[in-house]
Structure prediction request, 84 residues.
Amino acid sequence: MPRTTNEQFVRNVFDEARPRFNQLAAGFVDEPEAIVEQASTLFDKMIPDLAYREKPHHPMASAVFECSASLGGACRPSPLDAPP
Prediction:
């Protein structure tokens, strides 16, 4: 399904933070790009439920999007989510 303009706006927040996430992950893992790509997938799943997604220019929107991108960047898939 194609992204709406607003969803792409939110997605760009993660993309702009990607170099920072790669640098941060490099201090903890051998393949930071792979971990950040997993985080990117998690963030994509978060976008449809984010507050202010339909109002990206609301005064609180950028804070919500940036925090959500950081949370997506900090999360790793749970071993409980792995297929059996």
About this structure: The helical segments are 5-26, 32-46, 61-74. The chain has a mean pLDDT of 84.
